[in-house]
Write a structure and sequence with these properties.
The protein is built from 1 helix and 8 strands. By secondary structure, it is an alpha/beta fold. Strand 7 and strand 8 form a beta hairpin. About 15% of the residues are buried. It binds copper (II) ion. Copper (II) ion binds next to loops.
Length: about 120
């Protein structure tokens, strides 16, 4: 009988322990939002530079006055944007290095991502 109680107490302690650990596991960092605004003549001040920690979840948001395809080099992600439209490109920055983002058809660099 005493043993049973001891076991129950131990089980209770385990449950309490895991319940306490749960909130930490759910507080994932939100994706890092990288915003690039492209005007009719490209990005004011030149391509935007971003430095990202490797493994970080990011969302590249491109608002563009020009219709084109946004291309993230290295990760090889592509998404069409219409004139005056916005595209969101979510990805995890798993590959270290420096990567250009361009408007593919124009060959216009709009951002440079450094992942390290
Ligand atoms: Cu490209």
């Amino acid at each position: 009988m005493k043993r049973t109680i001891a076991l129950l107490l131990a089980a209770g302690a385990l449950v309490a322990g895991s319940a306490m650990a749960a909130p930490a596991a759910t507080t994932k960092p939100k994706p890092l939002v990288l915003t690039v605004v492209v005007g009719k003549k490209g990005v004011a001040g030149g391509p935007k530079r971003f430095t990202i920690k490797k493994g970080r979840k990011v969302v590249l948001v491109v608002r563009s006055a020009i219709a084109d395809e946004v291309h993230v080099h290295g990760y090889d992600l592509k998404k069409d944007v219409r004139a005056g439209g916005t595209v969101r490109i979510p990805f995890t920055a798993k590959i270290a290095g420096r990567f250009e983002v361009e408007l593919e058809n124009l060959g216009l660099p709009i951002a440079e991502l450094t992942v390290k």
